[in-house]
Design a protein that fits this description.
This protein is α/β, with parallel strands linked by helices and about 475 residues long. It is built from 14 helices and 16 strands. The chain folds into 2 domains: about 140 residues, Rossmann fold (3-Layer(aba) Sandwich); about 250 residues, Dihydrodipicolinate Reductase, domain 2. The chain binds NADP nicotinamide-adenine-dinucleotide phosphate.
């Protein structure tokens, strides 16, 4: 079949410097350095591209080389392919280390001497309490000036802890940079499975006409992890499930699934439709169910009698004509039956079919976006069973990402490349972050969490939430794209 080609990505030609504040961080070790290797391997780095990594320790060139090499040769779930020493060498030729404390102006003097390029990217792999001092020092030393070239800044989660703190962070960023210089990175938007939602919806002709309240009965999202908080008690106990994945990842999925078709496949139009959708969500705060897995209180660094939720389920609606009256049910949590993230669009059962004697609750058509694992898009349909008698049975038609030729691109590699190119489509702008927090904050009137057993699908109250409307949670299938 002829391949439909979309506007391509040419190799970039420019002199460019990437400055990583916190090159010794966990973030740099597990995500950034491996992503730079992948960009090198895929020939996507500009010829005249180099990296300066900053940290406080004194590290000599030889020791720094060993450090980068050991990162590249450590296999992790994020980066588990073989490392070609020649590619690693090419990358090492581009990276150097600069020691210094960001509170010390001398570091920025030294940085200025090393950065002659007019195009610069500042990657902040440090905690947000250091942003202000870094920005101040960049300005003072003329490093973020854009007179002849450009400069961009990349920041990561946490992008605030509620609406107020997100607004403060945005004000800080926008005091020093313009919105088109700021890249708020959440790796979730870099996932191919998420980006493919838009390609699938707007590249095909048959599904979009069905995406409205005439055909859609309801939408449900499950984001489940079978593991607990591990050693992250310090972080997680202050955050909880709603802020950890609800405010960001789940709203991003929901926006991509239900946003209006943008005028063009451009940053401005896509972002604007995502933001519009998130702003139009009607929260139903009384619907929310919080849960906590049994023995959570015994986890390391969890405070005594903590009421932090490790699970939530909620109902929401979209305030537009297209989805008026279509409920959206969301559940997410830890220590659940299976690690799986999927969105199911469940269609209405028409009473007019001639074969309507079947039990529609088991046969309802559904379009399922399986985000992870066994990534794919699945259509649940009814088909005839074997045998003489006419009997319909539910079955699945599936597209599996792993059937595509080649390897999927790591989200960090893709997003880092977008930063080099200057494409903000899959980054959040200030209004989007604030709209997400506004939605999440409306559920923050804390209810006590219900304790649920490990390996379940959460507290029974989450089942009651959906069942009171005559619907039920679809159990994510283990069969999808399994071979
Ligand atoms: N880790 C992840 O997977 C992950 C994922 C998403 C977002 N994030 C975010 O990324 C940021 C970093 O997280 P992390 O877990 O990677 O932290 P981390 O491992 O503790 O690293 C912190 C980094 O900051 C540097 N640093 C601290 N104080 C400094 C100073 N005064 N001057 C210069 N450098 C300084 C440290 O360098 P030295 O100690 O060597 O000086 C180190 O490289 C946080 O905002 C976090 O929320 C992390």
């Amino acid at each position: 079949m002829e391949e439909v080609s979309l506007p391509g990505d040419a190799k970039l030609k420019m002199k460019l410097k990437l400055i990583i504040f916190g090159v010794t961080s966990n973030l740099a070790q597990i995500k950034l350095i491996p992503a730079l290797y992948d960009l090198e391997k895929d020939g996507l780095l500009p010829d005249d591209f180099s990296v300066i990594g900053i940290g406080r320790k004194e590290i000599g060139p030889k020791e720094f080389r060993l450090y980068i090499n050991s990162i590249l040769n450590t296999k992790s779930p994020h980066h588990n392919h073989e490392v070609d020493p020649r590619i690693a060498d090419d990358l090492l030729g581009r990276i150097s280390y600069l020691s210094g404390d960001v509170n010390d102006p001398v570091l920025f003097e030294k940085l200025k001497q090393s950065v002659k390029s007019s195009k610069k990217i500042f990657y902040l792999a440090v905690y947000p309490d250091l942003y202000k001092i870094i920005f101040n020092n960049l300005i003072k030393h003329g490093l973020s000036r854009q007179k002849t070239g450009w400069s961009r800044v990349v920041v990561e989660k946490p992008l605030g802890n509620n609406l107020k703190s997100a607004q403060e962070l945005n004000s800080l960023l926008l005091k020093y940079f313009d919105e088109d210089q700021v890249y708020r990175l959440d790796h979730y938007l870099g996932k191919e499975t998420l980006q493919n939602i838009l390609d699938f919806r707007f590249g095909n002709c048959i599904f979009e006409p069905l995406m409205n309240n005439e055909f859609v009965d309801h939408i449900q999202i499950t984001s489940a992890e079978e593991y607990g908080i591990g050693k992250r008690g310090n972080y997680y106990d202050n955050v909880g499930a709603l802020k950890d994945v609800g405010q960001n990842h789940i709203l991003q999925m929901l926006a991509l699934i239900t946003m209006k078709e943008p005028k063009n496949f451009s940053n401005k139009d896509i972002t604007s439709e995502r933001v519009k959708l998130i702003k139009s969500l009607i929260p139903e705060p009384e619907s929310v169910v919080f849960g906590q897995y049994e023995n959570y209180l015994k986890e390391e660094n969890v405070i005594e009698n903590s009421t932090t939720e490790t699970f939530f389920a909620l109902e929401t609606y979209i305030d537009n004509k297209r989805f008026e009256g279509v409920p959206i049910f969301i559940r997410a949590g830890k220590m659940l039956a299976r690690t799986v993230t999927e969105v199911a669009i469940v269609f209405k059962s028409s009473a007019k079919r001639i074969l309507n004697t079947q039990d529609c609750s088991s046969g309802q058509n559904a379009l399922i976006y399986r985000i992870q694992p066994n990534e794919g898009i699945i259509l649940k349909v009814l088909v005839r069973s074997h045998g003489y008698e006419r009997k319909l049975t539910p079955s699945f038609m599936q597209f599996c990402h792993r059937n595509l030729p080649g390897e999927p691109m790591d989200p960090y590699e893709r997003l880092l490349y977008d930063v080099l190119k200057g494409d903000q489509t899959f980054f959040n702008d200030a209004p989007e972050i604030e709209a997400q927090w506004m939605f999440a904050d409306s559920f923050s009137q804390k209810k006590k969490p219900f304790i649920y057993p490990k390996g379940s699908w959460g507290p029974k109250q989450a089942d009651q939430l959906i069942e009171k409307s005559g619907r039920h949670w679809l159990e994510p299938s283990t069969l999808f794209c399994q071979f």
